[in-house]
Amino acid sequence: MGDVHELPRPRVATGHLAERIGQPVCFVGRVEKIHPTGKFFVLSDGEGKHTTVELSEPV
């Protein structure tokens, strides 16, 4: 498998993120909150819907 940064990624909104768990995606939106541990953050998409992202390692 190639480098994750070289492969094409589908652009998704909040409503479709659950279909892409564990897959690289392109999410256009804004960061609303970052948890103090750096492992969780809240994003909002262009429709104003929010989603929480959990990382395996902190940012």
From TrEMBL:
Short name of one Pfam family for this protein? Rep_fac-A_3
> What GO cellular component entries does it have?
DNA replication factor A complex; site of double-strand break
Keywords, in A-Z order: Nucleus
Q: Which GO terms describe its biological process?
A: base-excision repair; DNA replication; double-strand break repair via homologous recombination; mismatch repair; nucleotide-excision repair
Any GO MF annotation of the entry: single-stranded DNA binding
Name where it's found: Nucleus
InterPro entries to which the protein is assigned, alphabetical = NA-bd_OB-fold, Rfa2
SUPFAM superfamilies reported in the protein's UniProt record: Nucleic acid-binding proteins
Family per similarity comment: Belongs to the replication factor A protein 3 family.
Record-linked PANTHER family: REPLICATION PROTEIN A 14 KDA SUBUNIT, REPLICATION PROTEIN A3
Q: What is this protein called?
A: Replication protein A 14 kDa subunit
From which source organism is this entry? Eudyptes sclateri (Erect-crested penguin)
